[in-house]
Specification:
Protein name: Glutaredoxin family protein
Helix content: 25-40%
Organism: Leifsonia stereocauli
Radius of gyration: 12 Å
InterPro entries: Glutaredoxin-like (IPR008554), Glutaredoxin-like_YDR286C (IPR052565), Thioredoxin-like_sf (IPR036249)
Largest sheet: 4 strands, mixed
Oligomer: single chain
Number of helices: 3
Strand order of the largest sheet: 2-1-3-4
Amino acid sequence: MTTLTLIGKPGCHLCDDARAVVSTVLTEFPDAALDELSILDDDALRDRYAEEIPVLLIDGAVHTYWRVDAERLRAALTTPAR
């Protein structure tokens, strides 16, 4: 199973936009799951990503910052070896 992790915070409009794109794309990939983390709940995440949210990780590796492109995400999820 592929795990996507969206790192953001409440009230972040770019995070809301990213979540919408990821959720739409994930309807095409039933073997993928989305986890969400908030920089407000984790000092290490805040220190690392505060200026880059939203951040989308695929299986723990950074896929993108700020804006999620649906086509790029689809391509990443269909590539056998990431």
